[in-house]
Write the structure tokens for this entry.
Amino acid sequence: MKKIGIFYGSSTGTTESVANAIANKLGVSASDVHDVAKMTADMVKAYDLLVLGTSTWGDGELQDDWYDGVKLLQACDLKSKEIALFGCGDSESYGDTFCDGIGVLYEELKDTGCTFVGNHVDPSGYSYGSSIAVIDGKFVGLPLDEMNESDKTDSRIDEWIKDLTV
Ligand SMILES: Cc1cc2nc3c(=O)[nH]c(=O)nc-3n(C[C@H](O)[C@H](O)[C@H](O)COP(=O)(O)O)c2cc1C
């Protein structure tokens, strides 16, 4: 069994609650769901699959706690790690930078030698203008919009985690 750790950066609690929902569905215990602000290298070392969640702030920027989180991850050996990304955004009010934070995390981690999973999410079910999280026609992680499409979150998570557990 893969040991799964979930790390979230969340300013108003949305990504945190989504992280808990993902944990429930994956059967990950609450003790393996962490605020990224408390992440340490030893915690990273303990997991095979790191599920990383960020909301997007400003104009397509990472949630604040991820700036240090990214530096910490880049200093770790991630070659044997799988990484899955998810994010929360607002496709109506911020449609041109929708869930860009996922794309920023991807860019920051793509040269670490990690293996991304859950990184081919079909954008066709989303309404948005543009997103740097779309690369070669797919979202490189799971975008969620709790502001406008919270009714779709459950089924989006269900579909996505199939890719994480194979
Ligand atoms: C000032 C501000 C800027 C935002 N910028 C973006 C953005 O560029 N792209 C996006 O998809 N969502 C954006 N959002 C929406 C948040 O990402 C969304 O509300 C998210 O659910 C917050 O999650 P959190 O509580 O976990 O931090 C913004 C929200 C605010 C208030």
The chain has five helices and nine strands. Helices lie at 14-26, 41-45, 66-74, 100-109, 153-165. Residues 4-161 form a domain with the Rossmann fold fold (CATH 3.40.50.360). The first helix runs from residue 14 to 26.
